[in-house]
Structure to design on (397 residues):
């Protein structure tokens, strides 16, 4: 946005908005009629952006604009979207007439400026998580979105998962009793030295850097932007945002009050964020741990274990099981639920809200709380200390 437009925009959104009703958790497949095809654009068409584009196409929405700073990614997205226009500058995409909503899938350091520019263009938004690169950005984004009329769904798709809803019900019914400890983990054997060979195809390096510190072209920073502090919070905020959101929801908890974290780079040479770490979070009435190991496929994928004095729940990609207390030797589950985390449900919820103007399942406020703990753990890791978070989710000590 130009400076004058930006000042006018923030002046306008300073007026509190009315509270909106919350949309149902589950909505029918495709909230729009057969002859009602909302048009959309995708800003940042890397792997995730193109994945989401294909999902939105299947709902019957019409892709009319694609944008990326890296030409091969843009061309690949345009090949999936016949008739769509291509852009390098997302401000030009936002100025294209007839775009009803946008999908934002850029690196984390672009999340805030892309969101603000899209709101200024009066577009509804499906934005990838994590919400922000810093606690300060989260606070600014929440304040701005709260004072607009646009629909903003953040991509914590577990918020629209029937499986997570059923797990929440089981805990609410008292199956676990008092939960004193929660253990989250993520195992993938994918760590390796970063590829710094030349990028095939053209890239607008300055636009990729955006507000980040200026530096010469370094291909690995583009390929693995998530693992450099200038652009993102690493695996801690990426995968950790998903897991923390689930912990907060099922435990009916505010974000953690304090965190400590240890980690190191085991195999992913060339990056800044750790590929192995362990964090511990302090809440008002329980503790939680969050460990990640990208050097092992043992218990492959993610899981969250809720340990209660009446039972234990193990939740993962495929569903959840509840075991009685004390657990018997055969570990026979007293409850089993098979499910998953389909992104389609989250997209359907967003489209329903675009139509009804109700608030989506994952608002910016929810996303701010989800990433607050991971941001806190990154501060603890990088500064080598215990970090404490005030109730405003902004003040650190």
């Amino acid at each position: 946005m130009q400076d004058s437009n930006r000042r006018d925009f923030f002046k306008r959104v300073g007026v509190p908005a009315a509270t909106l009703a919350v949309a149902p958790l589950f909505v029918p497949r495709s909230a729009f009629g057969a002859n009602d095809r909302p048009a959309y654009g995708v800003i940042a068409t890397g792997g995730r952006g193109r994945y989401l584009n294909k999902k939105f196409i299947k709902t019957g929405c019409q892709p009319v604009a694609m944008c990326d700073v890296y030409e091969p990614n843009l061309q690949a997205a345009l090949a999936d979207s016949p008739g769509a226009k291509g852009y390098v500058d997302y401000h030009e995409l936002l100025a294209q007439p007839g775009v009803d909503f946008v999908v934002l899938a850029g690196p984390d350091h672009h999340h805030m400026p892309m969101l603000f520019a899209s709101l200024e263009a009066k577009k509804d938004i499906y934005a990838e998580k994590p919400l922000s690169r810093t606690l300060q950005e989260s606070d600014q984004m929440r304040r701005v979105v709260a004072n607009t009329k646009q629909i903003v769904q953040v991509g914590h798709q577990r918020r629209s998962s029937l499986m997570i809803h059923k797990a929440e019900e089981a805990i609410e019914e008292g199956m676990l009793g008092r939960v004193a400890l929660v253990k989250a983990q993520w195992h993938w054997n994918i760590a390796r030295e970063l590829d710094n060979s030349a990028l095939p195809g053209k890239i607008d390096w300055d636009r990729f850097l955006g507000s980040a510190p200026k530096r010469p072209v370094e291909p690995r920073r583009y390929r693995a932007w998530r693992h450099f502090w200038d652009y993102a919070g690493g695996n801690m905020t990426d995968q950790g945002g998903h897991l923390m959101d689930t912990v907060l929801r099922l435990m009916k908890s505010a974000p953690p009050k304090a965190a400590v974290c240890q980690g190191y780079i085991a195999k992913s040479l060339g990056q800044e964020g750790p590929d192995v770490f362990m964090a511990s979070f302090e809440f008002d009435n329980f503790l939680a741990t969050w460990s990640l190991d990208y050097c092992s496929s043992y218990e492959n994928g993610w899981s969250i274990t809720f340990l209660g004095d009446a039972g234990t729940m193990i939740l993962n990609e495929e569903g959840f099981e509840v075991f009685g207390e004390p657990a018997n030797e055969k570990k026979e589950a007293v409850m089993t639920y098979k499910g998953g985390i389909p992104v389609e449900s989250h997209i359907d919820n967003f489209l329903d809200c675009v139509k009804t103007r109700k608030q989506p399942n994952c608002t910016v406020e929810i996303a701010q709380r989800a990433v607050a703990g991971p941001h806190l753990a990154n501060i603890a890791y990088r500064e080598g200390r215990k970090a404490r978070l005030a109730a405003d989710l902004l003040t650190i000590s």
